[in-house]
Structure formats: C-alpha cells, structure tokens
Write a structure and sequence with these properties.
- This protein has about 140 residues and is α+β, with helices and mostly antiparallel strands.
- It folds into two domains: about 90 residues, Gyrase A, domain 2, CATH 3.30.1360.40; about 35 residues, no CATH class.
- Helices cover about 45% and strands about 15% of the residues.
- The protein has a four-stranded antiparallel beta sheet, covered by helices on one side.
- About 10% of the residues are buried.
- This is Carboxyltransferase domain-containing protein.
Length: about 140
C-alpha cells in the first residue's frame, strides 16, 4: 500500500497492481473504517478499484489536533488501519442478485439462446453456478 499527497488537503491510498476482488475489498475496508469513525476533518472519500482519494480540512486538523502536518497525520492513520486477512475474512460478504429470464424482463432471451444454440435450462445453470465479482 502506498499513501501519497494529492495537494495540501487530500491524500491518495493506492494498492498498486491488478484490479482484483481482494484489492477492491481492502480499499473498501479502509473507507468503511474511516466512515465509521466519522472524523470531522475528513470531507470526502472517493474510492476506485485500486486507489482512493481522501480529502480533508487541513486547517481544522491543525487547529483542533494541534499537529504540524495534516498529511503525516493522515498517512499514519491510514497505515494503522488493520486490513489483515483475518479482518478481511470477517468483512467479506456475498450479495444475491435476483435474475429473471425471458418474459417482459428479458424479451431478448430466446434470441440469445438461439445464437448460442443452447436450451434455457443449460443457460441458466451456467449463469447461476458461479459467483461473480462486481467491481465499483
């Protein structure tokens, strides 16, 4: 994980590397931690698949926290958030998304089946037997 300055009132947390479910989930763990803590000086959190921009009110931090460097304070805060495998496993979740095939919600379903030379039962089995990672 890399934490670097993005101007004088924001930082970027980067998990460098490929977009994976684990990378995205770990960034969201950091985001969820910060949101739960409700720090008054954090003004905005914008996550992407592998990076996250955290904007903060540097003047408020210097006045109320009596610190010289808001960036160093934020960097230390981020680096001390536990994103270990144990915490990751506890926070992982699966969301079931209902799917309807054919009818008014899938009027093109028969055309897809014809194009794939597949019957509805086989298509539905292939579509529902795996878990899918959905990124942001």
């Amino acid at each position: 994980m890399k934490v670097y300055s993005q101007g004088d009132q924001a930082i970027v947390v980067s998990l460098k590397g490929a977009v994976t479910p684990t990378a995205t989930q770990r960034l969201l763990m950091i985001r969820n931690y910060l949101v739960a803590k409700n720090y008054p000086y954090i003004t905005e959190i914008v996550p992407t698949e592998t990076d996250m921009l955290i904007s903060y009110d540097a003047h408020m931090m210097m006045r109320h926290l009596k610190i010289a460097s808001p960036f160093l304070h934020m960097k230390s805060l981020i680096e001390h958030i536990d994103i270990s495998d144990a915490v990751f496993e506890k926070q992982q979740r699966c969301i079931k998304v209902p799917v309807e095939y054919g009818g008014i919600h899938g009027f093109h379903f028969d055309k897809i089946l014809a194009e794939l030379s597949m019957d509805a039962q086989t298509f539905i089995q292939l579509h529902t037997e795996s878990d899918y990672f959905v990124s942001m």
